[in-house]
Amino acid sequence: MASGPSSPHRAIQTIDIYCDKSRAHWSERLGITDEQLRQAVRQIGPRASTVAAHLGVSLRG
What InterPro entries does the annotation carry (predicted)? Predict the structure, then answer.
Protein backbone atom coordinates (compact mmCIF):
# COMPACT_ATOMS: atom_id res chain seq x y z
CA MET A 1 0.00 0.00 0.00
CA ALA A 2 1.36 3.40 -0.95
CA SER A 3 1.80 6.07 1.65
CA GLY A 4 1.58 9.69 0.65
CA PRO A 5 -0.62 12.78 0.64
CA SER A 6 -3.64 10.78 -0.51
CA SER A 7 -3.08 8.04 2.08
CA PRO A 8 -5.72 7.91 4.83
CA HIS A 9 -3.07 6.89 7.38
CA ARG A 10 -1.48 9.52 9.57
CA ALA A 11 2.13 9.33 10.68
CA ILE A 12 2.55 8.09 14.22
CA GLN A 13 4.08 10.76 16.44
CA THR A 14 6.36 9.56 19.19
CA ILE A 15 7.84 11.32 22.19
CA ASP A 16 11.59 10.96 22.67
CA ILE A 17 12.18 11.51 26.39
CA TYR A 18 15.95 11.47 25.81
CA CYS A 19 15.81 14.54 23.55
CA ASP A 20 15.55 17.95 25.27
CA LYS A 21 13.80 19.57 22.29
CA SER A 22 11.26 16.75 22.03
CA ARG A 23 10.49 16.89 25.76
CA ALA A 24 10.12 20.68 25.65
CA HIS A 25 7.80 20.49 22.62
CA TRP A 26 5.56 17.78 24.03
CA SER A 27 5.49 19.21 27.57
CA GLU A 28 4.27 22.52 26.19
CA ARG A 29 1.82 20.95 23.73
CA LEU A 30 0.31 18.70 26.41
CA GLY A 31 0.39 21.38 29.13
CA ILE A 32 2.41 19.31 31.60
CA THR A 33 5.81 19.45 33.26
CA ASP A 34 8.90 17.69 31.97
CA GLU A 35 8.72 15.19 34.86
CA GLN A 36 5.02 14.48 34.25
CA LEU A 37 5.85 13.79 30.60
CA ARG A 38 8.66 11.41 31.54
CA GLN A 39 6.40 9.52 33.94
CA ALA A 40 3.58 9.26 31.39
CA VAL A 41 5.92 7.91 28.70
CA ARG A 42 7.37 5.37 31.14
CA GLN A 43 3.88 4.20 32.10
CA ILE A 44 2.09 4.36 28.75
CA GLY A 45 4.79 4.32 26.07
CA PRO A 46 6.11 6.92 23.61
CA ARG A 47 3.12 7.22 21.26
CA ALA A 48 1.94 10.83 21.57
CA SER A 49 -1.74 10.03 20.95
CA THR A 50 -1.73 7.39 23.71
CA VAL A 51 -0.04 9.72 26.19
CA ALA A 52 -2.49 12.51 25.31
CA ALA A 53 -5.47 10.18 25.77
CA HIS A 54 -4.08 9.04 29.12
CA LEU A 55 -3.82 12.69 30.20
CA GLY A 56 -7.23 13.60 28.78
CA VAL A 57 -5.73 16.08 26.32
CA SER A 58 -6.54 16.48 22.62
CA LEU A 59 -3.70 16.64 20.09
CA ARG A 60 -5.90 18.35 17.52
CA GLY A 61 -4.88 21.92 17.10
Answer: DUF3606
